[in-house]
Specification:
Layout lengths: L27 H7 L2 H16 L3 H14 L4 H12 L3 H13 L6 E6 L7 E6 L6
């Protein structure tokens, strides 16, 4: 069944046209990059202080109070509060930690050695596996 006049499945758009003329909303990570550097430092300092607080209720109160003082950039902290209290709170915390401290490096050792049949043997292991 195609897209007809009374079809409620969807609307067929002309070539080069879409249903949302403004396009897809920007990701939060890209929005943060557009924020001036001094505001980014303030936001990261507040998030760092919040993750050091002992209880989640106190951390939420702290973030809400600080969001009011940041003015137009307070919405970043409100998004962080919603994400931390949501179903994927652990992932949100990991994202904040990655943003604050950077992602850990994952090193890999590659060992190539020849055998009797002249076919190379390739052995790949991570640094925490140990080895030669």
């Amino acid at each position: 069944m195609g897209f007809g006049k009374g079809n409620s499945v969807g609307k067929q758009f002309k070539k080069g046209e879409s249903g949302n003329p403004n396009g897809r909303p920007r990701r939060l990570a890209l929005v943060i990059e557009d924020i001036p550097q001094d505001a980014q430092v303030k936001i990261f300092r507040i998030l760092h202080t919040a993750i050091k607080i002992g209880s989640t209720d106190e951390a939420v109160k702290y973030l809400k109070a600080e969001a009011a003082t940041l003015g137009e950039y307070g919405m970043v902290l409100q998004v962080a509060i919603r994400a931390l209290n949501g179903n994927n709170g652990w992932q949100a915390l990991c994202d904040i930690l990655d943003r604050l401290f950077g992602k850990p490096r994952q090193a890999t050792d590659v060992t190539i050695s020849g055998s009797q049949s002249n076919r190379p043997v390739i052995r790949i292991m991570s640094r925490n596996e140990g080895g030669d």
